[in-house]
Amino acid sequence: MFEPDQADAASATRHVVVVGAGPAAHRFTESLASRLGAGASDAAAAGLRITVFGDEPHRPYDRVALSKRLDGALDLSLGDESLWQPGRVEHRSNALVAAIDPGARTLTLSSGENVDYDELVLATGSWATVPPIPNAAAGRVYRTLEDVDGLAGELKELTARLARPVDVVVVGGGLLGLEAAGGLNRLGARAALVHSGRWLMSSQLDEGAGQALGRLIRQQGISLNLAVRPSEVLLGDDGEVVGVLLADGRRLAADIVVFSIGITPRDELARNAGLAIGDRGGIVVSESCATSADHIWAIGEVASIGGFCVGLVAPANAMAEVVADRLWGGLAVFPGIDDATRLKLSGVEVASFGDALGATEHSIEVVYADPARGLYQKIVVSDDAKTLLGGIFVGDAGPYTSLRPLLGRELPAEPGAYLSSAGGEPPASADLPDDVQLCSCNNVSVGEVRHAIHGGEGDSLGCTDLGELKKCSRAGTQCGSCVPLLKKILETELTAAGVAVSKALCEHVSLSRSELFESVRILGLHSAEEVMARFGSGLGCDICKPVIASVLATQTSAYILDNGAGPMQDTNDRALANMQKDGTYSVVPRIPGGEITPAKLKVIAEVAAEYDLYTKITGGQRIDMFGARLEQLPEIWKVLVEAGFESGQAYGKSLRTVKSCVGSTWCRYGVQDAVAMAVRLELRYRGLRSPHKFKLGVSGCARECAEARGKDIGIIASENGWNLYVGGNGGYQPAHAQLLAQDLDDDTLIRYIDRYVMYYIRTAERLQRTARWQEELPGGLAHVREVVCEDSLGIAADLEEAMALHVENYEDEWAATLKDPERLRRFRSFVNAPNTPDPGIVKVSERGQNRPAFPDEKADGRVLLSGSSIPVRAAAPERGENA
């Protein structure tokens, strides 16, 4: 392999030509230009001329964000426009390079123009692969802005002409295929996806993760056809697309077919010029990204390094940095392929990094699937369970941000402690060493970020806001997956320096949750669109959207899936039920205070028997039924509502239960009627949306059989009335409730609880339990007592009025759903076959009831791992063992 002469690379005057104007070309150009310093004449002053040829009519744009174009984003341009100012970089659009002459160091454009170069960087990218099947030319691809704009335009035209939803078949279940299907689905198309693998994203995810992703994608109305390939695009007599014939003989209706099955390196220029080409295509390069020809380099998807071409952001950026350094006289080498990925596919978070599939010998996997929210999370560690080797996250990729930088290092605690599904929390940002890589896309370390924050002159700080820090350090400016950790580090460092830290919800909403709540209340906003238009930017994210939906539900008592709030809700809220590990749902009717009549018990028994549901009495004194399919939920709730039941809202961030003992009615130790009070409280606060779930407990005497002090609000009877405790909870960080007031009569007790709950709802931050909220308030419990009991802020009447409004306007969510045919349309497993059950749901009888099948009990061996404890399994067999 030829390596360019370093002395020659540092010669006085050079014309650097870049062929291709994609993300890799932009990164190289930006990196090279940054070495010149600022100013229009720097390139000429340094004896350097930089020209970028691109065959598209645009400057470089973010191809990873193409789906945002379907959602209405107009500008996906990369970087700062100042890069292209005269004297720094010349960008020539619509300029197709037709040939290269390495010997003469010239290239020829399709127009016939010849251009001399001193150094040539090939960043030609790739083509979208199209399968060799009949009529494939009638399909579309999903690769460029023109592709996406063309799709959107055709979809709009067909929708108007056909006067019905357009049927779209997307071939390919990888990253781009899922983004295309999701984007078109959001535009009103009926999307069907065809994938040759047995599960989605089969190159990046294991079977459990792929199955979890498949369920979440199906919930959005996208039908999946797995383990099958297309054999022909079907055309009508007029030559227009009418369907897709699959290899198994099935036919899918289609008005549009989109291919997204992979990439083919655009290596024809290099091939025709005699450069070495890899066996699988792509331009062969060394670790310095030099090709086999003198003064020609290759970066990005077209570069074959180690026999592979990689279509990911981080490796392309690393190659660009290597070549920029080499042309400036450095000795940089390609550090290796980082295939870490974090994306939101059709609104579903997916992330993987490192040895995600557990191929390392003797490695073990720690796997957890949250049965309440349908999450799949896995960490791969060394055989001693200490060194982090990789991970996969579906549904909630929160742990990825903090764990990705620790790849290859010893974990500070046991692996399960970092999985949010198991109640874990990420490692503290303050504990991350400076040499840990924070941003893999731009190769930025934690130490570099800290230096940027503290890098001001003298004692002054450098970057003090997130936007400034991203621009200065370049961390978080590409895929954005490291931004949450970047924000945490910024907040930690600023707090340590005595600087007030912003409580902004996310990059789309600059207000904190409490500020947003007050703003919505004062302005009287009633829809998600109004809130985003007034306080948001962009399309929002999975942080701000559920918060907005919750705030609106609390203030308006409106049906939680109306007024544009439906798509903003979490998975469970959208189904008005908790998703379980096998894709079924739980049915949890409200049983106020745990009190239930024999007649109602009989109804629950009959429903459970008819629909073959697993039944369990919970710690919250109600009966849960598990195993209902999505399309069965309305049928089941119709029976329950007619029998006088309401939704127990086990799926919502709202009141869960009010637990009670039997109290003075039956117990010889009881001093107050605990059941009557529990029923009264549960009927008062039912359906009330809050920053996090909250629970109450009522004990009829000091023996505390209802465990009231382990609840957010605990009421314990005394001879003189009720003692009120607040700020307790169980879970991962248990807390005992603290005494707020004692010897209260019934009305005063309820008045204080009204004030406490509403003050919590108005001032707590996102997902903050009452215990943490109470701790962080200035003055803590004393402040709460002053506000609730003494009305120190003069808002008691306002808080009581807000609660009275909730009580007056409450409507059971399932009762409201059953009255509206449009609302009922949400509850279908398959949009195109609404009464068809999910064939992937398999049950096994155990102890007289059904439970989800384990992997070895299913015909195809596919099921998610889960449990009350974290299952651990060997990921890779020892050498010589059978796989």
TrEMBL record:
It is an enzyme of class 1 (oxidoreductase). Siroheme binds at C705. It comes from Subtercola boreus. Its EC number is 1.8.7.1. Residues 652-791 form the Nitrite/sulphite reductase 4Fe-4S domain. GO terms for molecular function: 2 iron, 2 sulfur cluster binding; 4 iron, 4 sulfur cluster binding; flavin adenine dinucleotide binding; heme binding; metal ion binding; NADP binding; nitrite reductase activity; sulfite reductase (ferredoxin) activity. InterPro entries: BFD-like_2Fe2S-bd_dom, BFD-like_2Fe2S-bd_dom_sf, FAD/NAD-bd_sf, FAD/NAD-binding_dom, FAD/NAD-linked_Rdtase_dimer_sf, NasD-like, NiRdtase/SiRdtase_haem-b_fer, Nit/Sulf_reduc_fer-like_dom_sf. Belongs to the nitrite and sulfite reductase 4Fe-4S domain family. Coiled coil: none annotated. The keyword Flavoprotein applies. Residues 340-404 form the NADH-rubredoxin oxidoreductase C-terminal domain. SUPFAM superfamilies: FAD/NAD(P)-binding domain, Nitrite and sulphite reductase 4Fe-4S domain-like, Nitrite/Sulfite reductase N-terminal domain-like. Pathway: Nitrogen metabolism; nitrate reduction (assimilation). Its cofactor is FAD; siroheme; [2Fe-2S] cluster; [4Fe-4S] cluster. Catalyzes the reduction of sulfite to sulfide, a step in the biosynthesis of sulfur-containing amino acids and cofactors. Binds 1 siroheme per subunit. Residues 844-860 have a biased composition (Basic and acidic residues). The keyword Oxidoreductase applies. This is assimilatory sulfite reductase (ferredoxin). Pfam families: Fer2_BFD, NIR_SIR, NIR_SIR_ferr, Pyr_redox_2, Rubredoxin_C. Residues 838-860 are annotated as: Disordered.
